[in-house]
Please model this.
Amino acid sequence: MKVYQRLAANFKAEGVTHMFGIMGDANMYWMHELDKLGGVKMLEVRHEGAGLGMADGWARATRTVGVATTTCGPGVSQLATAFLTASRAESPVVAFCGEHPTNDQDYNQRLDNARFAAGCEAGYVRLNTPDDADDAVRKAFYMAKLESRPVMLSAPMDIQQKNCEDDEPYQPSSTLIPPRAVRPDPEALRQAADIVAGSRHPVILVGRGARWSGAGEAVLKLAKRTGALIATTLMAKTWLSEDEYHVGISGTYGTRTAMKLFEEADCVIAIGASMNRYTIEHGYLYPKARYVQIDSKPHVVMAGGRSADTYIQADAKAGVEGLDRMLEERSYKNVGFRTPDIKKQLVGQYEDRKEYPIEPGTVDPRDVIRTLEDTVPTNISLFTGSGATAGFSNIMFSRQRPLVLPSHFFGCIGQMMPAAMGAVVATGNKPAMLVDGDASVMMHLAEFETMVRYNMPLLIVVMNNEALGSEYYKLDAHKMKSELATISTPDLGAVAKAFGGKGRLARSAEDVRSAAAEWVSKPGPMIIDARIARSVVTLPYRRIHYGQDE
Model:
């Protein structure tokens, strides 16, 4: 058996069902063997970085390992931004990367894969000898799962072609990681219960970790017992929004109503949330509060170098259930924020009523979001980008959906389209909607052809102001030449049609409604090019760059 054959069999034994990437001479034999084995769908993409981005999206959607592949040298170097984004997203990903032959140091496509992986914050495992075929694959998947990050498996071309033994069955990485949930320490729970019982206005702040652990019902029960508002991190956006005292995102994308209420909070119960500077606004968002933090990690330092008043290392669900049980034993019950007056304040909290002049031939971007929220059913998942226009989507979308994945990892544009595609594949090709900016979508526009080729039911709504929005408003706020940040774009609806999908150009809310309704009636690859008014500034940018909060 050749090494590349054993490597392919090992990937299949790890439970891999889908893989994203581009074939080259340093991975083609491995890909050929995977195809021969069957059971692994290989999705060929148009850019190596997009393939890794799709594997990242797969991992974010499923919390299982996403798999990508590329050839050696320039194929690997194309992965930089996608590696960093997956690293910051804490996505378990394994990238099978070819490497130049070990016996040819002058090879034209040579690259030091180890140094490259380190610079991209990725783990690194190298296939050094034929006998490493099992250990290398097992270690790569083990690291990706245990450390929750991308790992490069570097396979030199000449080593792949050598012979290896196959007399022993492969032992997958799952045999090394026993399933277990971290249980909370009783003394830490007691200290947390003391803080909560001594508070009058608590806020429960949930992040991705709470959602991943299935803590939803436990959180709702604790919120009712303690009288707490429910807020989320950006990454858990709209989760549990069925609760009538849900106040949306805590942090930069929070509503004014939520921020005013947070000022009154005297206790924050953070569950599966990193409590970074964006979530707690550098510590200023909860000026009177004591913190209880529940997280599966041994410890997490909050923004500003502060530690929670009580930290509980536990699986989120187990930690919340334990805290609620202890409060129940004390017969604790609190009204807190859950009053008719607070409920009244929360009505219409997501509305942005500031008036702006709208340029001819464009639509108010807030009307685009309102229209999509009303037209696209809640059984459709939502993905949002990270450019300036995210300030509209990340605040105004408020309905709970099967999957909501925002961007912002590494602060880069261009990465959410591949991630959304990977997530769609991961969820069984269920329909989904991506709302992103024009400059972001243009970066990987070629992948729309990939969407068409695999008939992905993804609606891409381009919030198109024909500008690099972040730079445009920053220059404008400094009374500088903002026009330098403008870039014209073609009719992206027409481009989508040329690629073989559906597309529409929208210059009014009614255009958006009609186009979205067309897609809802028959989901498939589609772009709505919504030409939005530059005159309308997002609420976060008004706060940060213009000193306004209205």
Observations:
- The longest helix spans residues 48-62.
